[in-house]
Amino acid sequence: SRPAPENCLPTDGFVPLGTLLRLPQFRGFSAEDVQRVVDANGKQRFALQLGDPSTGPLIRANQGHSLQVPALALVALETPQALPQVLVHGTFWKHWPSILLEGLSRQGRTHIHLAPGLPGDPGVVSGMRPNCEVAVFINGPLALGDGIPFFRAANGVILTPGNADGFLLPKYFKEALQLRPTRMLLSLAGDKGTECPSSPQHSPRGRRMTQQ
User: Fold this and answer.
1) If you average pLDDT over residues 1-20, what whole number do you get?
2) Are 57 and 79 contained in the same domain?
């Protein structure tokens, strides 16, 4: 039997679909509606599987949990060779100054999400929102060498819990790229390159930001 106590996920993250559909926020939705969402989700964020007669169909999120899911189907990437050549985190201008100063944070989740490429690159299904404004490229082998673990989720997203405080520090940043309105490299210096495009010091055509 898979049912779990309230506010607690089973070790593999799957919960009975019937239990989910009885929640107030899902009132009016059917199992067929959920199946369509799972099938149509290009980022493969959800998984459905048959349960036993006592539970019926089971559903889980493949990533993005705020609770620990010990038996989630994650593959540990334990050597530099196992890591994708590209590890990149997408973010927005409003977060960039704090990221540049403190690093990437789990922000209440169990993992920091990284993509094996930019949106539109071959084989990149998920890991970054298509409207992200800044891409931060990570030196995975350096972080791995410092004991920071990396995992691959079922949909190809690379996950890391970061350090003991839940951060991937700036020393692991290889480079940063402005994605919008035009693509250009950003400075990783703490006192430069932190202005957003709406700043008076930034050209609306996306030219390099004025440095103080």
Assistant:
1) 55
2) no
